[in-house]
Design brief:
Largest sheet of chain A: 6 strands, mixed
Oligomer: heterodimer
Radius of gyration of chain A: 19 Å
Number of helices of chain B: 12
Radius of gyration of chain B: 17 Å
Strand content of chain A: 15-25%
Structural class of chain A: alpha/beta
Helix content of chain A: 40-55%
Largest sheet of chain B: 9 strands, parallel
Distance between the termini of chain B: 40 Å
Number of strands of chain B: 9
Distance between the termini of chain A: 51 Å
Strand order of the largest sheet of chain B: 5-4-3-2-1-9-8-7-6
């Protein structure tokens, strides 16, 4: 895997961090470079991924959904079947194991929908470490079941009441904690964002998704014509895309268009944002004319973020990946369609990718293969969907 | 010579250390900022740091976070801020340092922002999320226009201190404690060590200001005794501003400033017993 020089993907990435964090980031990079190719580390991580998390995940041919839409064949990469219910565990096991090798006793994390928080709590419980999770207050309400899950798993949840009270503020608060407790604490970032080396490290831990897709498609004697994943910070997407960037597949990342790209109530950073510096990285951001970060909206808490991983910004500018967006309405339709045709309840985040797959499949004229990463399951979202449906029936 | 450099030279001849205050522009409103500046100047402040609010101040504690939010809600914008700086410049020659986050400058363009700031009367910049590795464009834009004040932490290595000192002008900002702004942890031994260490690496080429968690005359006294060339006080001023009514703001700030400034004067100037 390629390692970005100076932590830059083209002009994106870098490390824009308070000086106090520099030694910690340097220590992290040094250890990551040391362990990422270490035979024993890889063996241990492979063991946990297999017998604890449940890898490899199946590549499921969604026959009913495909036939309903036309001639294309839709394959779902079932990350929703992983322990914890989302792809997040791929990264938390990797980083928690790294933290353990670095002899860090205290782990902190941020979470949006709560999936990364839960995955952190699980990995830490399994490896015998203590976790504290920062979560936007607004998210603790709309994802309260995940708050309780973290609690059950022994993690301490800190609701964050500053700013927009969502994921970006949870990251701010986690960084503040890290600055304060830099000598003892490992910051386990959940997406392919933040200062170098986080974006590349998270990509590498998540690349298991794309690697498996490649070999699973090969077994079917196929190569994917399209590859689709949802993008908030973009960790499941970069893990899906990165191993396939050298293939001929059309690659599409799907952002949250919320109430529509013109509504200002969305989280479609790459579709509607501009370049800037936030959370230690240079990347596309949703910001106003003065460089103030704007508040975002998405029906899915996990995509509700005004930034995006720097490598996605790079792939946007180099045009290797197309970035589209799905509105809340399209997402709910996709959620319902997948649930009813296949008996699979997707996370609302992943339903963005399904919404795009539906569009691609409908347009497709021949029997092409579409691979969609189903990044998580939707148990956490049924209440949100219920609320949405009852509100929209009333309207 | 920059205004900041001149100020430190002038203080040296008077055998004084620098009192540097941080306030948030437009907190709680524009009118109060002018009263606060007048109080600071009358109280004898040497350098004023003016905060420009950013939506995501990740190096700041609750006090400055709140001040940023209030200032933004009150409609603080870049143009308005520069107009305020011009107004301050009409009343005082005190060096003015703009403290904000990288994105505010990056978004407008480093050169454009710095040129406008200089024209308004800004003498230097502090960007707590600007690491020296990423600073090339920023430094080029600031060269001969404004001082670039970088931060150093107690855990910064010797070689990095030298690198940062090279990129810095005006003064070096030593972060006293591990944490965000405004945390009160008392004076740590590691801070005293850090002051000595940074002084050694800086070789007298650039003054050292100590900030973060410095809030009382006693703090000022101890850091100066440990060798700091200046002290930076922010959250304590903001707390005072928050609880003081507008009509008493100038006099309250003046007397608090005086109590701090007194500690930066050399002992021998005090009458002997």
């Amino acid at each position: 895997m390629k390692y970005p020089k100076n932590g830059r993907f083209g002009e994106f990435g870098g490390k824009y961090i308070p000086e106090t964090l520099v030694p910690a980031i340097e220590e992290l990079e040094e250890n990551y470079l040391k362990f990422k190719n270490d035979k024993n580390f890889k063996k241990e991580l492979g063991y946990y991924l297999k017998v604890y998390a449940g890898r490899p995940t199946p590549l499921y041919y969604a026959k009913n959904l495909s036939e309903k839409l036309g001639d294309a064949k839709i394959y779902l990469k079932r990350e929703d079947l992983l322990h914890g219910g989302a792809h997040k565990i791929n990264n938390t096991l990797g980083q928690a194991l790294l933290a353990k090798k670095m002899k860090k006793k205290r782990i902190i994390a941020e979470t949006g929908a709560g999936q990364h928080g839960v995955a952190t709590a699980m990995a830490c419980a399994a490896l015998g470490m203590k976790a504290e999770v920062y979560m936007g207050y607004k998210d603790t309400i709309r994802q309260k079941l995940n708050v309780f899950r973290m609690d059950l798993l022994g993690a301490k949840v800190h609701p964050v009441k500053s700013g927009s009270k969502t994921l970006k503020d949870a990251i701010n608060e986690a960084i503040r904690d890290w600055i304060t407790n830099v000598e003892t604490t490992y910051y386990l970032l959940g997406s392919a964002v933040g200062p170098h080396p986080y974006p590349v490290m998270v990509r590498d831990f998540q690349s298991v998704i794309g690697d498996e897709i490649k070999s699973q498609m090969k077994k079917l004697n196929k190569t994917p014509d399209s590859v689709i994943a949802c993008v908030g910070g973009g960790s499941n997407a970069i893990g899906t895309f990165y191993p396939l960037v050298d293939s001929n597949a059309e690659i599409i990342g799907v952002e949250a268009a919320g109430h529509g790209l013109k509504s200002k109530k969305h989280s479609a950073t790459l579709s509607a944002g501009s370049k800037g510096v936030l959370h230690g990285m240079m990347t596309y951001l949703l910001q106003d004319k003065e460089g103030q970060i704007t508040e975002t909206h998405s029906i899915s808490a996990g995509l509700d973020y005004p930034g995006v991983g720097p490598e996605h910004s790079y792939f946007k500018d180099t045009k290797r990946v197309k970035y589209h967006a799905a509105t809340d309405t399209e997402v709910i339709d996709a959620f319902l369609m997948l649930t009813r045709t296949e008996g699979i309840i997707p996370a609302l985040e992943s339903a963005h990718a399904i919404a795009e797959a539906i569009k691609v499949a409908r347009k497709s004229k021949k029997s092409e293969s579409i691979v969609v990463t189903l990044s998580g399951r939707g148990d956490k979202d049924v209440e949100e969907v219920q609320n949405y449906l009852s509100k929209n029936v009333k309207d | 010579m920059s205004k900041i450099k001149e100020k430190f030279a002038e203080l040296q001849t008077r055998k004084e250390k620098a009192l540097i205050s941080y306030i948030m522009a437009g907190f709680p409103n524009e009118k109060s900022t002018m009263s606060v500046v007048r109080g600071l100047v009358k109280g004898g402040v040497d350098i004023i740091e003016l905060g420009f609010p950013f939506s995501d101040p990740l190096a700041d504690g609750p006090v400055i976070q709140n001040a940023s939010t209030v200032s933004l809600e009150k409609g603080t914008k870049i143009e308005k801020f520069f107009a305020l700086v011009k107004k301050i410049r009409k009343e005082t020659d005190t060096p003015l340092v703009l403290m904000t986050y990288t994105n505010i400058l990056y978004h407008k363009g480093y050169s454009k922002f710095i040129a406008q700031a200089k024209k308004a009367g800004i003498d230097g910049f502090i960007l707590p999320d600007m690491s020296v590795e990423e600073s090339k464009e920023y430094l080029q834009a600031a060269k001969n226009n404004a001082d670039t004040i970088f931060l150093i932490s107690p855990n910064t290595s010797k070689t990095r201190i030298q690198k940062i000192a090279k990129a810095s002008s005006g003064f070096l900002y030593l972060v006293a404690v591990y944490g965000t702004t405004g945390v009160k942890t008392g004076i740590k031994n590691y801070t005293i060590e850090a002051i000595k260490n940074v002084k050694k690496q800086a070789k007298g080429k650039i003054p050292i200001g100590v900030g973060f968690g410095v809030s009382t005359p006693e703090d000022v006294k101890k850091y100066i005794k440990a060798g700091a060339d200046g002290v930076i006080i922010g959250s304590a001023f903001l707390k005072l501003i928050e609880k003081t009514p507008q009509n008493k703001l100038e006099s309250k700030i003046e007397s608090f400033t005086k109590s701090l400034k007194k500690q930066t004067l050399q002992k021998k100037q005090e009458p002997s017993k």
